[in-house]
Structure to design on (64 residues):
């Protein structure tokens, strides 16, 4: 996701690793904190369900 944002943020082709690095940092700065917070909450919910299921199948329980 960050790589795609960095590539679309760049004007033209990225020439080297340093340019990619600067574009990634620019894309990172544009990320919405609310979106990041929501993704972390969703990941945390999935992680807790996985632990509760002892690593077994759990995705069907997330929508309950």
């Amino acid at each position: 996701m960050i790589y795609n944002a960095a590539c679309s943020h760049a004007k033209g082709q990225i020439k080297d690793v340093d340019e990619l690095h600067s574009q990634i940092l620019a894309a990172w700065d544009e990320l919405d904190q609310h979106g990041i917070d929501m993704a972390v909450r969703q990941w945390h919910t999935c992680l807790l369900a996985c632990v509760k299921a002892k690593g077994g199948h759990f995705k069907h329980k997330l929508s309950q």
About this structure: The chain has a mean pLDDT of 82. The helical segments are 2-9, 17-29, 33-52, 59-62. The two ends are 29 Å apart (CA to CA). Residues 33-52 form the longest helix (20 residues).
